[in-house]
Specification:
By secondary structure, this protein is α+β, with helices and mostly antiparallel strands. About 30% of the residues lie in helices and about 25% in strands.
């Protein structure tokens, strides 16, 4: 019998000084005393042999013997495994440490205090949903304890009656209705046997509101009149009326929309990248993850984004996610030291996170998953809303909305899953089962507070984006085949395998036989029910033909993607889960039982009178104070804190993100993606949501939500309204008459206007338990959300460059013109009404659909004909916000003349649909006539002026303020949350840029001679470049595209190829080491990757030989840069290279940053000396760290290749011009002979100008960064 031995090591400091200061401040605030706090990472390692090389263990972990007696430790909850653990165990396996069976990370905290720890509040040190406090080392040694499997439970209803089912329903949190309990009772009575807990859990998840959408499929009776259509019928009517472009609607994990024939970057069977013509269609899907985000914001939002990504990947026979979106609705933030007049004292249950906690942690979770997976998040929204309590009830978002969505691409021949047959192999692809996320489908189907608090813990999920990336690589390889091995694929979400595998069977008209022992399982203590129904993330269920088994396994092994053949399909239409260990069947039911015809829900509602409100006279409210408050409202204010944490350039397929202009101001109305690296065809996507209107007019709220989404995409020329496809997400607190009625009214209204406009709604999702209940003392409280319909609209685009943004043109003589449907200026539901705490009766609305259609088509025509220089839609905050956000893009003022306007507050703050457009003065009369002939309101209202924003009313100046001061109001929320969440000094630095008159934003001093591309491509030589990646790397496609277009044969090389000796680096003239998150960066950025090289002599020798070859080049970007810096001991002339540490901001930073190229011997930067060019920068650990005098020596030897620079082209430490805090702005270095160049920014993502959110108008197709790849070709051809 093998013996196990545990080791405890001490690692690096857990937190930066700024992050530790934040923890100290929270500790002091709650515990009322100040003290010193220290924290280090602690590693618990279990080895299955006593003959373990402890020194090598410590070296891999960069750890030492633990020499501190910490006060307490924070680690994962017993019975759970952290994502860090899974990734680190992969590293040990791949460096050859087979003796390591388990490894886990904890945080040791040392607090200088004589107070008993049990008397202190330690909540600031850990997340109670995913972590635990351990007082000493003995407490956490049980983390590796292997318990015996829990047993299968039988519910003894045959012996004890239906009450046993009812009791199980409550204790397990099944959330089944009385009808469903009766249905099950009858079924098992007829079978004459007791149900198992595994069968009941499976049934509960499959038939939850979350999965079955009972309300949307319900029968409706309104005022005694039976309606013939369900809500689902109403939505489907839109696709029937306007089927153009729809390939698949409501049949799969995402909708599929017709695309274009373009050049696709294909990885062929010989692992060479090539461009081939293909029909690429679009996918669209938008999900929510509200309940998990309420109880544990970071993992809730992270797995929300991860789950939606899986939906896209599992569409058809395999699709590829391309760009993503994230949105949040929460109650009032109540930021300390920034309390607002409209925010009252907080009242919420302790079991859910506060709105501020959600907005600090959840966006990081969502961004982190997108970043690590490698999907750019380029669109979003954020709304705060909460009313005062009345009779212990209020409206708001104590149960938040966490929206996650995106669009992807799918090859035309992979649109539809195939009809599989019996004896097809059923495969689980992805991570192992763990006791996390149990019963999430049911938990999300009930109001927060209706379930047991212990069940909330059980439904928390755990993210591992790096594993999902590996799964996606397998899907990508299969989907690129002429005939994909994947014939059926389903993501694993709510209900776990107990939902996904039966769904596969049902959709195929087959049954399944599953072997419980074959299901990958990291927690051997789990019962059969827990193994079957847990919602461990990053998993897919596939069906493949037996003849493809070995080939499919080879793909998985190369990608190091876990997989298991768990069973096969059967003719008998049943679900059989066999446990060979106990020789029983935890599940053995016919599919008809699981997906049978349950009684249809019936909803009866009675129409209610519209509540009359006591209106406040808006003209009496102070204008200056109102403008200030509106700009300060989080819904209106800058969203920078939500955006810069997310990578927006990974993949190289983004044509428009949230930022616009040289100052990178987050005011873009939409996002655009590209279909190909060689085409300007793409897609535009935009969001609309107006929940505050639903308080008085649910129908108007949905019409306006659609209208906002469409006006948001007006600045991009599309191919017509009939080609717009919409995802409709419905959030409501159903159960009460008024809430049910609001939902019905909203769906009816959206269906009708969509049909009238010929807009289709082929996909959507509902979350109809948006209510939070709790008890405090003798009082019962309730907060419910209004009807909240979020519209995500997508349309194909023929040329993404044929578009305009809110960025003002300050070179031409121009006017700012107001365009809107009519002269209505209704204020109900506006931000103005919230911040002034005033009520109004009438909401904005689309009163004339035909007029809206004409307004939209006219704007499209003007953009197409280049008559509009800039445009911005009118939405939250009204016209005044629209105009100011346009001013912010160029730091200029505007003189607004509102002559002949009776009530300027109504005009400025009403949120009626419309636009502010900038046009040249010579076109004014022509454009006015164009709109007036369609009876659309148009008025010339403003001109650009120097630095102030002034409003003139009937010849009197009624407002005049500095644009910079107004922008500071607008940035307050973002700055405050950055200060709490990140390094406060950094947040202050960014805000101070507004006062820096010398800061001109992004500039460039160069152009690029792209005729070089053609001359290199016509040469016969095709040198080979190894596009090197490790598990978790996600930037290989854009790297391969750039090198291929420069004339290389780009070859995909996985580290596994080198370890398996199937490829040798000798075969290549160049090596490009790509960006991403190798092993999730768990041992420092690039640390695990470099150790797999240094600890494998055969691979190490290959790299060393390559680095010493004078005829080859190496480029390392981002994660590749970090990895290569760790190999400097085997790289000639790299002695003085830095290592790369956590950014000074303590945060992942994604920016379009300005760099200058220095004169060096770098063969890749040849002829680029003194070029100053913006470049994509996206990393969390990019701060160059030098030892001793290495920085001085590096500069002396002219090996600094690239620096962040300010507007005077000087190296800078100023954040965010320097986004990571590297000394002297250093962000790229080269070896002494110039053949090996590493850099943190990403030139491969922006080699085309269309890939940049700001670029020079003088550039052609390519950006100056293409020169790097041309230089590589020139060097290879001359070597």
């Amino acid at each position: 019998m093998s013996k196990t031995k545990n080791f405890i090591f001490q690692g690096k400091e857990s937190f930066s000084s700024s992050k530790l200061d934040q923890i100290k401040n929270k500790f002091f605030k709650i515990n009322k005393f100040n003290t010193n706090i220290r924290s280090n990472e602690i590693y618990l390692v279990q080895c299955n042999s006593e003959k373990t090389n402890v020194d090598e263990l410590k070296d891999v972990l960069s750890a030492k013997e633990n020499d501190i007696n910490f006060t307490f430790y924070v680690g994962p909850r017993l019975g759970t495994i952290s994502p860090w653990s899974s990734k680190t165990e992969d590293i040990f396996k791949n460096v050859g440490f087979n003796v390591v069976s388990r490894v886990e990370r904890l945080y040791g905290f040392l607090i200088e205090t004589e107070t008993d720890i049990s008397n202190l509040d330690l909540s600031m040190f850990y997340d109670r949903m995913t972590q635990s406090i351990y007082i000493n080392q003995e407490d956490f040694k049980d983390l590796f304890k292997l318990d015996n499997p829990s047993s299968l439970n039988h519910i003894k209803m045959i012996e004890k009656g239906k009450s046993e089912l009812e009791q199980a329903n409550e204790s397990f949190g099944f959330a089944m209705s009385n009808q469903e309990i009766n249905y099950l009772y009858d079924f098992y009575l007829n079978e004459n046997r007791n149900p198992t807990d595994a069968e009941l859990m499976m049934f509960a998840q499959a038939n939850s509101e979350h999965c079955r959408h009972k309300i949307f499929n319900a029968k409706w009776n309104i005022d005694g009149e039976q309606k013939n259509d369900t809500l689902f019928d109403l939505i489907k009517e839109t696709s029937k009326s306007s089927p153009d472009g729809i390939i698949s609607a409501y049949k799969d994990n995402a909708a599929i929309i017709k695309g274009s024939n373009v050049e696709r970057l294909n990885l062929n069977e010989s692992k060479k990248y090539e461009f081939i013509k293909d029909e690429l269609n679009s996918t669209i899907k938008v999900e929510t993850h509200n309940h998990p985000t309420a109880i544990s914001p970071y993992p809730g939002a992270s797995t929300g984004s991860g789950g939606e990504i899986r939906d896209e990947g599992a569409t058809g026979r395999g699709a590829k996610p391309k760009i993503g979106l994230v949105g949040f609705n929460v109650s009032n933030l109540r930021i300390p030291q920034l309390l607002r007049s409209w925010e009252k004292d907080e009242n919420k249950p302790t079991r859910i996170a506060s709105p501020l906690e959600i907005m600090i942690e959840a966006p990081i979770g969502a961004a982190a998953f997108n970043n690590e997976f490698g999907r750019p998040a380029t669109l979003g929204y954020f709304r705060c809303f909460e009313t005062d309590f009345k009779n212990n009830k209020a409206l708001g978002y104590h149960k938040p909305i966490m929206l996650a969505g995106g669009i992807g691409e799918i090859r035309d021949n992979n649109n539809f899953k195939l009809q599989i047959e019996e004896e097809y192999l059923v495969i689980v692809l992805g991570g192992p089962a763990m006791l996390i996320g149990l019963g999430g489908g049911a938990a999300s189907s009930v109001s927060s507070g209706d379930s047991d608090e212990d069940l909330d813990f059980a439904s928390v999920q755990r993210d591992n984006a790096e594993m999902e990336r590996r799964c996606q690589e397998v899907i990508n390889i299969c989907s690129s085949q002429d005939d994909s091995f994947i014939e059926f694929i389903h993501d694993v979400g709510a209900g776990g395998l107990s939902n996904a595998i039966p769904e596969l069977a049902k959709d195929s008209n087959l049954g399944v036989y599953i072997d419980l022992s074959k299901i990958p399982n990291s927690d051997k203590s789990m019962s059969p029910m827990e193994v079957w129904s847990n919602e461990s993330q990053e998993r897919y269920v596939l069906a493949i033909n037996k003849k493809n088994k070995e080939s499919f396994e080879r793909i998985c092994k190369r990608e190091r993607c876990e997989y298991a053949i768990v069973g096969y399909t059967t003719k008998e239409m049943s679900v059989k889960l066999h446990d060979p260990v106990n020789n029983n069947y935890p599940v053995d039911v016919p599919l008809s039982m699981l997906f049978g015809e349950l009684p249809i829900t019936e909803i009866k509602v009675i129409k209610e009178d519209i509540e009359l409100v006591n209106e406040k006279r808006s003209e009496k409210i102070d204008l200056e104070n109102s403008i200030k408050k509106v700009l300060q409202h989080p819904t209106v204010a800058s969203k920078s804190f939500l955006i810069t944490i997310g990578d927006r350039t990974v993949g190289g397929m983004v044509a428009r993100d949230q930022f616009v202009g040289p100052y990178q101001v987050p005011v873009s109305d939409n996002s655009m993606s590209l279909r190909s690296y060689t085409s300007n065809k793409g897609e535009v996507i935009a969001i609309g949501e107006k929940p505050t209107l639903a308080l008085l007019n649910p129908a108007a709220s949905m019409r306006m939500a659609l209208g906002e989404a469409l006006t948001n995409m007006s600045g991009c020329v599309i191919t017509g309204l009939e080609n717009i496809q919409v995802s409709a997400n419905w959030m409501a607190a159903c159960g009460e008459n008024s809430d049910n009625l609001a939902l019905r009214s909203g769906v009816e209204a959206l269906s009708k206007i969509a049909v009238d406009l010929k807009v289709s709604i082929p996909v959507g999702k509902d979350s109809l338990s948006m209510r939070t209940k709790w008890t405090e003392g003798d009082n019962n409280y309730e907060v419910s959300s209004p009807l909240s319909g979020v519209i995500t609209a997508m349309a194909p685009v023929d040329d993404v460059l044929n578009s305009v943004t809110p960025e003002l043109d300050i070179e031409k003589e121009t006017f700012i013109v107001l365009v809107k449907l009519d002269e209505n200026n209704r204020l109900a539901g506006s931000i103005f009404s919230e911040v002034t705490e005033s009520k109004y009766q009438n909401t904005p609305d689309i009163d004339d659909t035909c007029k809206f259609e004409k307004m939209f088509s006219t704007m499209q025509m003007l953009v197409k004909n280049k008559k509009i220089l800039s445009m911005h839609d009118i939405s939250d905050g009204g016209l005044v916000t629209t105009l100011l956000e346009m001013c912010f893009t160029k730091k200029v003022g505007m003189r607004v003349n509102l002559k002949e306007i009776q009530n300027i507050n109504d005009m400025l703050f009403s949120e009626e649909l419309g636009y502010a457009i900038q046009i040249e003065k010579i076109y004014l009369d022509e454009i006015i006539k164009t709109f007036e002939k369609n009876n659309i309101f148009i008025k010339n209202i403003a001109e650009i002026q120097d630095k102030n924003f002034s409003i003139i009313h009937n010849e009197n100046e009624v407002f005049n303020e500095s644009v910079i001061k107004l922008e500071k109001y607008w940035r307050e929320t973002s700055h405050a949350i950055q200060s709490i969440r990140d390094n406060k000094l950094i947040a202050d630095s960014e805000l101070s840029l507004l006062d820096n008159d010398s800061f001109d934003g992004l500039r460039t001093n160069t152009s690029f001679n792209q005729t070089l591309i053609d001359s290199f491509n016509i040469k016969k030589t095709r040198p080979k470049v190894a596009v090197l990646r490790e598990q978790g790397v996600n930037g290989q496609n854009e790297m391969a595209a750039a090198f291929t277009l420069a004339g290389f044969d780009a070859i995909d090389v996985h580290m596994q190829d080198l370890l398996d000796k199937s490829i040798n680096l000798k075969q290549f003239e160049g090596m490009a080491v790509c960006g991403g998150f190798s092993y999730g960066d768990v041992l420092g950025a690039g640390g695990g990757w470099s150790k797999t090289i240094l600890y494998n002599n055969i691979v190490k020798d290959q790299f060393q030989e390559f680095f010493h070859n004078d005829k080859v080049f190496t480029l390392g970007v981002c994660n590749g840069c970090q990895m290569l810096s760790n190999l400097k001991e085997i790289i000639p002339g790299a002695n003085f290279w830095p290592s790369f540490k956590r950014n000074l901001s303590d945060q992942f930073e994604a920016r379009l940053a300005q760099v200058k190229i220095k004169k060096t011997k770098s063969v890749l930067l040849d002829d680029m000396e003194n070029w100053m060019v913006p470049v994509a920068s996206a990393h969390g650990e990019g701060r160059a760290h030098f030892k001793n005098n290495d920085l001085i020596e590096l500069e002396k030897s002219n090996q600094v290749a690239m620096q962040f620079v300010d507007s005077f082209e000087r190296p800078t430490m100023k954040y965010p011009i320097n986004p990571n805090g590297s000394p002297n702005g250093i962000t790229g270095v080269t070896s002494s002979n110039g053949r090996i160049t590493i850099m943190m920014p990403h030139p491969e993502r922006v080699f085309r100008k269309v890939q940049m959110s700001w670029h020079s108008t003088k550039w052609g197709e390519y950006s100056p960064w293409m020169q790097i790849f041309v230089n590589a070709k020139r060097f290879s051809d001359s070597s």
